[in-house]
Amino acid sequence: MNTLNNKEVTISELASILENITASTVVNITYLVDDSRSKVVKGIKQVQKLVNITHVYLNHDYTKKV
């Protein structure tokens, strides 16, 4: 089981980690993104949002649940 608590990874690193998961797995992902409605000062967005996605099921066979 891979646990990456509070580790900063790039999109390509995350994709590499997720593509190697072959068993049914639950993943929670938290990321920081610029708010599209935020003011821009010197080319930098002033407000960012913390997005938390919980209970993403990878390689989960839903037909077994029915």
List keywords for this structure.
single chain, 66 residues, mainly beta, two-stranded antiparallel ribbon, two-stranded antiparallel sheet
Q: Gist?
A:
The protein is mainly beta. 14% of the residues lie in helices and 38% in strands.
Q: Largest sheet, if any?
A: 2 strands, antiparallel
Percent range of helical residues: 10-25%
- Oligomer classification: single chain
Total helix count? 1
- Shape field: elongated
Total strand count, please? 4
Strand content: 35-45%
Strand order of the largest sheet: 1-4
User: What structural category do the secondary elements indicate?
Assistant: mainly beta
Poorly predicted segments? none
Ends apart, CA distance between termini: 27 Å
Radius of gyration: 16 Å
The succession of helices and strands, N to C, reads HEEEE
What is the mean predicted local confidence, pLDDT? 82
Secondary-structure blueprint of this entry?
Blueprint: H1 11-19, E1 25-34, E2 40-41, E3 44-45, E4 48-58
Antiparallel strand pairs: 1-4, 2-3
Describe the structure.
The chain has one helix spanning 11-19; strands spanning 25-34, 40-41, 44-45, 48-58. It contains 1 helix and 4 strands. The strands form 2 sheets. The chain has a two-stranded antiparallel sheet. The protein has a two-stranded antiparallel ribbon with strand order 2-3. The mean pLDDT is 82. A hairpin with a 2-residue loop joins strand 2 and strand 3 (44-45). The protein is mainly beta and 66 residues long.
